[in-house]
Every structure is written in structure tokens, then in C-alpha cells.
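Sequence only, no structure available. Ideas?
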Amino acid sequence: MRILLDHFSKSFGAVKVIEDMNLEIRDGEMLALLGPSGCGKSTTLFSICGIHRVSGGRILFGDNDVTNVPSQLRNVGVVFQSYALYPHMTVRQNIAFPLQVKGLAAADIKQQVSAIAALVHIEELLERRPAQLSGGQQQRVALARALIRKPDVLLLDEPLANLDAKLRLEMRSEIRRLQLETGITAILVTHDQVEAMSMCDRIAIMNAGEIIQIATPSEMYHDPRTEFVAGFLGNPPIAFLKGTAQDGAVLLDKSDIRIPLPGRGRPAGAGRVTLGIRPEDFGPQGDVQIPGTIVFVETQGRENLYDVRLADGGMLRSIQPVRGDLKVGDAVTWAAAGDKIMVFGEDGSRL
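Reply:
I predicted one. C-alpha cells follow.
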């Protein structure tokens, strides 16, 4: 089911949260609405499912305008961060509830509950109550209840926020598997870039009520449109250095370090710019030498993360295989991959 937000706006009283947004979610894809708290991603999701009434524009499911259609008639499955299971019901009863509301026969309900329980791997939990389940098990029940109604659209609002790290990893792959197997159109709201990049076909990154960029995870990571997008994606995060561009190079602030500009990122004349260098593009190998001092080493198992302070006080990060010959306080002259350096103008846009 294709979803279209056509000049969509949403206000709460005098507060404008979303204004004139245009967004298309393609049939059968999983799209992430990614951004910091307060950017409007949950407001957008709640408007799609009908919890919020739109203030302007249209919402289309396929060719059907559902802007003023009540939420219960939109055939949307929603999974919330809190799971929202009925505590007095068993797992079986929780999953069956949407079908009972529809008035299906008991035999049909039993068969469909068994089928969806097998799909989400909770067959042995059907007679338990929510209080007897782990967080991951409760999330599977919530997914089963959302999917059993065969919705046109699956909406996921921070569905993994309450799970520990191991369960989040497991449920990321499970939700993606279910979405691919059912072919359902899905929208994931999250502030977690790892969730968005690992689960979704495309990402719409939001800030202050507007979409900054829409792209595949790989495209957005390697070719961000703005400094905000570059800084939001990546773990460890990208490092930014400020300076003045002149004669094909950048002189870093409070420093005599000059960094050649890549061909794409050369401004027309002199001016203030920000350079972005990702940790994997800075280390012993590279063509743009940048001296500094190691001020922090973080062991991450197979790799170490090094923070390198430059003479101007700026900081670069480097992620490398574990090595025992480096320690805090060591002076190093590492290098950046010149063709990977990103250049942003004063307004934050990519040059």
C-alpha cells in the first residue's frame, strides 16, 4: 500500500509542528522517520494512523483519501513503545482481540492466532499473561496483534526503546523479517540511527518539523546533504573541524594546519567552512597528514577508538584494529583520506 502525505500540516493550537510536508512511502517498503526528540516524527506517525487530525493537506492510502477517515477504519496496525497489552488477558486473547471486534467465528480466530503466533515464534506463550513475559516476548505479542488484522500499513513507534541491547539486536532482525515476509508497507519512528539503518529501505531524516533528506541508508551515510545529517548518522560520530577556505585548502582555526579541499567541496571563493571526517577515514593510512595527540582510547573488542586532539583544539576520531603500541599522550601524525573529506558551508549545506 503506497502512502502519500500531500502538503501535510499539523498544529496544536498556535504551535506549528509540521508545515507543508510532502512524503511518499512506496508500496511494500519500510521507511524510517529518524530524528531527535521533538522533531515531529511521532506527530507524523499519529496523523497517518488517525490518532491526530491533520491541520492541512491530505493523507492518501493508495488512491484513497483517508484524511478524515476515523482511525478504526483505516486498517492500520500500530505497535507502540509501551506494547499496550491488556494485562488481564492471556497472550491468545490479546492477539485475538482485533478479530473478535470484527466478529469472526471462533474457529477462524483460533486458526489465525495459531498461524500468527508461529510467524512471530511465540506458540508456547499463548496461555500466559503479559506480566509473565519478558520485554522481547511482549513486543512479539504486540507485533502479532498488529499483524493479525492483516493491515494495509504497519506503524512502529519506537518499538525497541524498552529492550536491552541484546534483545534490540534480535528484534531488529525479527521485525525486518516479518515485514519482508508479509510484504507490508511499514513506517518506523525512531531516534536510533542504528535501528533506522539496519531495518529500513529508506530513511527520512527530520529536524524541527521538516524532512531534511530522504535516501537509502548507504546513500545518506556516504553522501549527506547537510552538516546536520552527517552528524546524526554514524557511530562513532563524524568529527567536524572549522576553518577558512582559500586557494584550494582550509586553514584550521587557531592553527597552521592546512587541509587540501577535495574537488567537489571547493567553494567559489574564500569563506568559512566546516570539514567533516569520519573515524574510518582517519588513521595511519591516508594522503592528508594531520598531526595531533591521543587524548582518549576506548576499547571496543575487535577495535579501538582513538580521540586525537589537534593543535587548534579540534578533535578527530579514528577507529582501528586493536593495537598495544599507542597510549594516551602519544603524539601521532595520522592522515585523512582526502577524497572522503566532507565540506559544509556556513549555512550547513554540503558543498
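The two ends are 37 Å apart (CA to CA).
Hope that gets you unstuck.
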